[in-house]
Amino acid sequence: MARTYNVVTYGCQMNVHDSERISGLLEQAGYVRAVPTDDTPDIVVFNTCAVRENADNRLYGNLGRLRPVKDKHPGMQIAVGGCLAQKDRGDIVRKAPWVDVVFGTHNIGALPVLLERARHNAAAEVEILESLDVFPSTLPTRRESTYAGWVSISVGCNNTCTFCIVPALRGKEKDRRPGDILSEVRALVDEGVLEVTLLGQNVNSYGVAFGDAGEPNWKRSGDRSAFAELLRACGDIDGLERVRFTSPHPKDFTDDVIAAMAETPNVCHSLHMPLQSGSDDVLRAMRRSYRSERYLGIIEKVRAAMPDAAITTDIIVGFPGETEADFQRTLDVVREARFSSAFTFQYSKRPGTPAATMDDQLPKQVVQERYERLITCVEEITWAENKRLVGETVEVLVAVGEGRKDERTGRMSGRARDGRLVHFATEAAGGESLAGQIRPGDIVHTAITYAAPHHLNADGAPVAHRRTRAGDAAEAGRSPRTPGVLLGLPTIGAPPVAPAPAAGCATH
Description:
With 508 residues, the protein is α/β, with parallel strands linked by helices. Helices cover 32% and strands 19% of the residues. The protein contains 15 helices and 23 strands. Strands 20-21-18-17-16-19-22 form a 7-stranded mixed sheet. It has a 6-stranded parallel sheet with strand order 2-1-3-4-5-6, with helices on both faces. Helix 8 packs parallel to helix 9 and helix 12 (324-337) packs parallel to helix 13. The longest helix is centred in the last third of the chain and has 24 residues, at 364-387.
């Protein structure tokens, strides 16, 4: 019987996409995904994050809970990968000696080999590379969604933010060739995918590291228009209905990206651009090479070109040395920017970052109190911005798992073009239920009847429903898979029967 696997993912979109690659690798090597009710899969892979302070506790807590399970099932293997594995390396096996494999952010493709080697040698295998040898998008990928796909355009980061450990764990930025990116996007569209999100630690610095040889003009070394041209090129792909990207850095944001967003019909008018702090003094201490005036200036230009744009952000509260005046400046910028949503964080000290050794680390109670005030401010604004959409008809890409109460309320859920979460009724005007006709991946137009700080409701009958190829794939239970280069990796089970040799001499 084929061995089963389960992948547990923590962290950002980059990690989610890496987990799709891990699944693709394991399935190409002969493993099959465990059913959700199986609490004893043969392989458990933890794809970890190291950005937050509680990352270690989450991992080791879960490893501890698995130890007695593994003791009862000697053939079970546990692997730990991702950013925390890159950081802690051999410490993971020292703290949790029942772990079989530790691999880093640069050698995901080695996982099947490491699992087989650990099984053969009956000993833990720890392999961490210091730099990327193969761009991860060359690996086979088992996509989790039939309608939306991640596409990496770069990995790593050249910035030196004092609070961030990512550059140390993901390495320097490496940009993927435009032709490879567009080929992957086309392959996803051919599988029925309607929406792609271009991924990078800093997407709008894309193209700076390109060489000149054999590249079209828009891909020259140091060409700062490369990301804008990539967006425009995505606009030429038939069948691709939505293009998103995350995350840009304000220091690299150029007017041609705004123009490309406004002028390319399938690029969504949504922008996630981290602020981190509204205080110029704190931004300077964070080594964020922009100031609040520059940040607000970008937003002003975006809204001038796209009045309907929804802008979201990341904000950190309680950075070392942050004063009450600094925090008030953050609130001022939040009120002026009028974000449609914000991911808010309490500063988390990460060993190995410059900020971890800074003076004036703030007491927990001060950070908590400011954090609560920030949440209140953000929600007042997001609620007011969402209320402006009541009565408007929006286009919704129907999704899976977005509405936790959908089964109880009889609604379905999805994302509008601007990224907002919409819960919509599935009853037609005549009272007939459309729940069996509307599939994940289909497109629904519906009128907004109610707004909350974090979502919109549409309680009337859908205005229109369009069945799509993505919906067909969801109904058939098909998940898009993008192939990769996978040479020499072991497979599980009996080898395939070789074809009978042809008569005559072989040619070489």
